[in-house]
Amino acid sequence: MQQHGFVCREQELEDLHGHLQQALAGAGQIFFVTGQVGSGKTALVRQFLQEALATDPDLVVAMGSCNAQTGIGDPYLPFREALGVLTGDHAAQQATSKLATENSSRLSAVLVRSVQVLVEVAPELVGAFVPGVKLLGHLGKAVFTRAGWMTQLDELAKRKVGATESVAEQGRIFEQYTAFMQRFSARTPLVLFLDDLQWADSASIGLLFHLARHIDASRILIVGAYRANDVALGRNGKRHPLEPVVHELTRNYGDISNDLDAIPETASRQFVDALLDEQPNSLGEGFRQALFRQTGGHALFTVELIQAMQERGDLVRDSDGRWVEGDSLEWSALPARVEGVIAERIGRLSEELKQILMVGSVEGEQFTAEVIARVQAISEREAIRALSGELQRQHHLVGALGLIQLGGVQLSLYRFLHNLFQQYLYGIMGDAERACLHRDMGAAMEELFAGETDSVAAQLARHFEEGGMPAKAAAYRLQAGNRAHRMSADQEAAAHYSRGLELLASLPAGPDRMRLELGLQTSLGTALTATHGYAAPQVEQAFSRARELCRALGDPPQVIPVLYGLSLFRLVRAELNRSHEDGEQLLSLAQRAGNVGYIMGCQAQLGATAMYLGRLQEARELLEQVISAYDRNEHADLAYQHGQDPCVAALSYLPWVLWVQGYPEQALQRSREGLELARELEHA
Questions:
Q1: How many other CB atoms sit within 10 Å of the CB of residue 679?
Q2: Where does 93-169 have alpha helices with state H?
Q3: Is 281 helix (H, G, I), strand (E, B) or coil?
Q4: Could you tell me where the beta strands, DSSP code E, fall in 196-298?
Q5: Cβ distance 52 to 245 under 8 Å?
Q6: Model pLDDT for residues 147-167, shown as the tens digit of each residue
Q7: Residue 674 DSSP SS3
Q8: pLDDT, tens only, 233-252
Q9: Measured torsion, CA atoms of residues 353, 356, 358, 364, in degrees rounded to the nearest 10
Q10: Beta-bridge partner residues of 368
Q11: Rounded distance between C-alpha atoms, residue 410 and residue 89, angstroms
Q12: How many other CB atoms are found less than 10 A from the CB of residue 561?
């Protein structure tokens, strides 16, 4: 018997292959595989992918997984991983070695074209989803001529990733990701596998919905796997965002789901028989019925229990090498739940190996040898030897995923072969030990990513929060929220900021706490403006508190975005006099600071306020100042920093002023200019 084999159910495989054939014919498809933990969702899909690659020599596979620890706070994680796979990061596939080897060779053959397509149709994803420098490294010597798109890639790679000026609007992310997939699949058919969608963030689910609605004429099959029972429980007391998306896609596409938990008992029993018969045996009907009663046909439980029985001597080989029941077999002595089997397996490890795995479980289902080495105070070579040696080859508890690059750091990535192993190890620790390991983990990651913590800010926030260090956790919540905001994942950004503010409540009052709260409140106000609108009460609450903090801190430079947010709130609420007062104060501060972006934004806001107050000439002068100072090449990113472009705003209000003043032709001309600039900026 294969120690970690999985015998797939024929009907479920047929369903997947049927959808693949439609996709290969140019009618893009989406299909979901659901089931409880350990039901075999991932194993089923991976066997399908292996068969699909063997059937079609042109097909390629891209995989992305959501993360139980940080998925909700790490925007677009599965889609970033999948795009990385398609543009040279083949180690991110998280697949079996046979699948990864075959798929990697095909991906390497189309690497140059995939990067070219990315640069040409989805340039804003360079930096936001995949680092430009990394793409250049993957290409290496594969490009022999300096085509125009290579020059463009050089420029994109030079952009300062993570800077506030590099904000990608969500609608453009959706459109460009979809355009890349459409163009790529026109010549290379593609299966996109998204695993553990129950942990997906709202931005990823939104992108999934958008992509699924625009692949009908593409050679793309999207396969998603998730735990339906977790989705049914909702998220944070509300409906899970994946649920309405699945319902809407089902309404459009028909039956697109296969629930492994709903498989008839006869099929589950057939699975047990097929698993037993993978190797020669003389196990009779009595044994098979007892095994099925013990496991219910649960995939992981069945596989693990059989392995445990072999190791205990409950199953032995006869003289012909066939598996038979041993003399010591007693069903009542066997674990009644999969957790019991896992406990027995972990209990057989040496203390050193067990500690390595416990540290790994704190990092998550995926973990890195370099972090474990630092926490355990051993060399990286020792950590890799233990993980790739005994824990992978002998005990079959972990699998190596290869080398990954995060920022300037190269890491050896591993994962538990099933998340139940990770959950068990994490759960058996006491609270004090767990908190201590989280603190050590955070410190180790800070050391590894010194100066480049942006890509792991969500993980660091979690470790320091669980480790009882709220100040550091709140600071990393701010950093993680800012990263989410730069990708226009404002729901996720607001969640980070709000959690950061909750963490601050336990800290003593003082300037450091006020400065951190100011950053969180200001950023929260900006995110809530995007999600709730300019005039929402939550927006006023965030910016008003930030204004109080600015006064207490002597009005630091951060007061400029605070006043800008408040003035826009009051303008949209028609509190015109207060909006005008805020605007004048803001303009004076922005001029002293030399902040051209806020000067123009403030002038546009003051012009709109003056217009509503009937002060038409004042409004006209302010709005015309914005238009004359605006440079399309220099200021185009202001729309993504402030939520609107100041020149588009000025060209929207100025025609009203000109019309009322009696200049209809000028009004019409300015209106047309505003529409044209808005189209050029493509800001939804």
A1: 10
A2: 97-109, 111-121, 125-128, 132-139, 148-158
A3: strand
A4: 220-226, 257-259
A5: no
A6: 778 888 888 887 654 444 445
A7: helix
A8: 888 788 999 999 999 999 88
A9: -130
A10: 413
A11: 12
A12: 21
**Alpha helix locations (H) across 213-241?**
228-232
Highest mean pLDDT among 29-43, 135-149, 428-442: 428-442
Distance CA 276, CA 5 (A): 10
39-53 mean pLDDT? 88
The backbone torsions φ and ψ at residue 623, rounded to the nearest 5 degrees and listed phi first, read: -65, -40
DSSP annotation of 603 reads: H
- Helix, strand, or coil (residue 40): coil
Q: How far, in Å, CA of 649 to CA of 38, rounded?
A: 54
Question: 392-396: long-range contacts (C-beta < 8 A, 24 or more apart)?
Answer: 395/345, 395/348, 395/349, 395/353, 396/3, 396/4, 396/307
* Token pair in block for residue 506: 């336990």
Is beta strand 366-368 parallel, antiparallel or unpaired with respect to 323-325? unpaired
Q: Map residue 684 onto helix, strand or coil.
A: coil
Ramachandran category for residue 682: left, alpha or beta (phi over 0 → left; psi -120 to 50 → alpha)? left
- Distance in angstroms (rounded) separating the CA atoms of residues 481 and 595: 24
Residue 433: CB atoms within 10 Å: 12
Axis-axis angle for helices 470-486, 490-504 (nearest 10): 160
The DSSP H or E segment spanning 30 is: strand 29-34
Tokens 């008992």 sit at which residue? 265
With beta carbons less than 8 A apart as the criterion, state whether 356 and 383 touch.
yes
CB 172 within 8 A of CB 124: yes
H or E segment to which residue 512 belongs: helix 511-532
Please name the residues in contact with 676: beta carbons below 8 A apart, sequence gap of 6 or more. Answer: none
What strand order describes the sheet that includes 409-416? Answer: 366-368, 409-416, 398-406
User: Which residue, 60, 184, 218, 61, is CA-closest to 114?
Assistant: 184
Residue showing tokens 């490890």: 349
Q: What is the pLDDT of residues 357-371, one digit of tens each?
A: 999 999 988 899 999
Task: Say how far residue 244 (Cα) sits from the centre of its chain.
Answer: 19
Report the alpha-carbon distance of residue 678 to residue 669 in Å, rounded.
Answer: 14
Tokens matching residue 201? 């963030």
Is the pLDDT confidence value at 562 over 70?
yes
